[in-house]
Amino acid sequence: MSKDRHVFIIGGGVIGLCSAYYALQQGHRVTIWEREPEKGDNCSLGNAGMVVPSHFIPLAAPGMIAKGLRWMFNPQSPFYVKPRLSPALMRWGWLFYRHANSAHVDACKQLLLDLNLRSRELFAEIAKESDFDFQQRGLLMLCRTQKGLDEEAEVAEMAHSLGSRAEVLDAAATAKMDPDITMNVAGSVWFPDDCHLNPNAFTAVMRERVRAAGGEILFGQSLDRIEHSQGKVHAIHSKGQRFAVDQLLIAGGSWSAEILRELGTSLPLQAGKGYSLTLTQPKQLPKLCSIFAEAKVAITPMNGSLRFAGTMEVGDLSLKINPQRVKGIVRSVQPYFPAFSEEDFAEITPWAGLRPVSPDGMPYLGRAPRHENVLIATGHAMMGLSLAPITGKIVADLLTENQPGFAMERLAVDRF
After folding, report:
1. What is the fold, at CATH topology level, of the domain defined by 55-100+135-194+269-357?
2. SS3 at position 7
């Protein structure tokens, strides 16, 4: 495709940036439209910074309905659906219920693993020439109880069946893996293919690369109108300006469903709020990233700091902090890392971000059903950062009408 074809990307997070990067490599002209100011925040910045081939089980999995119902009555639980009168939420919930089964996991696990492994390779390629603290040391799934360890051992067995690496460790072997942190655990599962990085630094690197390749990034925009007719989008109107487009990519995260409604497309998508707290001078600093298996809290060392991230609070598009959810993260730390106390977090301002969550736990990636020149890339839930490079590569392939090399029907925008 020649360079006079213009790709307009709504969304300047890691999905939009990686899509722009690979589209520019394939000869497209690219403009990124971002609602936040340049120094603003989005879900790409304050997350746990993990690249997770270990996460091959989609959010809609067996047992999630029962766990969700139990957790509904605990204001500090790791998963919560905010009740509200919303047809969109009710439809999303029904679809989630229909997909929370082993058949769905079996149909998706190889694809999720393959996507994450390929994305890991692309991260490594980008890291050869850029510094964003990319650490290829693996991840420890830390288990406080034998029951938790037994459950994670089943995931390890599933990983082995897919040809992926995982090792079940007892408490002593876990301590040897990361001796710089005191742990109180029954054991762990080590996933050696997982990695971690600084998401803020990665976002900055990708902005630089997009600009260096000739891409344009517009910050602080307001979407006034999408001009479309006869199955095509012709222009984006923002702040009195008209931007003509040849191809449009909607990578607006949790706001993607609202944008698509302007085009007459109803996308089952909910915002899943997550929180993080970052200690800049932690008492102890592990070398490996980890996850508290029972508490569902992720822990990542980042350039001397230590970030704790967790919760999936399905609700509206509000970024209002729920103190009880934050307290749940803080209270989970000492049982696993006894050197820390709740007082260590007393002066830390919590960060909140909205993850776009599809009802089956799989991303939306492909052409829009009603408009031939519109692509959609959203719905990655907790794997937005992890899958960003491979998502961008697939977007670039679709723009150039190349075959991505993956089973795209599981990611189809109109699969529901």
Report:
1. D-Amino Acid Oxidase; Chain A, domain 2 (3.30.9)
2. strand
CATH number of 6-44+201-268+361-411: 3.50.50.60
- Residue (of 396, 351, 350, 365) closest to 18 by Cα position: 396
Structure tokens of 405?
């090399």
CA distance 153 to 156: 5
Q: What is the pLDDT of residues 86-142, one digit of tens each?
A: 999 999 999 999 999 999 999 999 999 999 999 999 999 999 999 999 999 999 999
Half-sphere exposure of 198 (CA within 13 A, CB side): 16
311, burial (CB in 10 Å: exposed 0-12, middle 13-18, buried 19+): buried
8-state DSSP, 380: B
Q: What is the pLDDT of residues 7-24, one digit of tens each?
A: 999 999 999 999 999 999
C-alpha distances in angstroms, 379 versus 105, 217, 240, 357, 396? Answer: 17, 22, 30, 5, 18
**If phi over 0 gives left and psi between -120 and 50 gives alpha, with beta otherwise, what is residue 222?**
beta
Q: How many CB atoms within 10 Å of residue 303?
A: 11
Q: Tokens for 138?
A: 């693996």
Where are the chain's structural domains?
6-44+201-268+361-411, 55-100+135-194+269-357
Cα–Cα distance, 206 to 14 (Å, whole number): 8
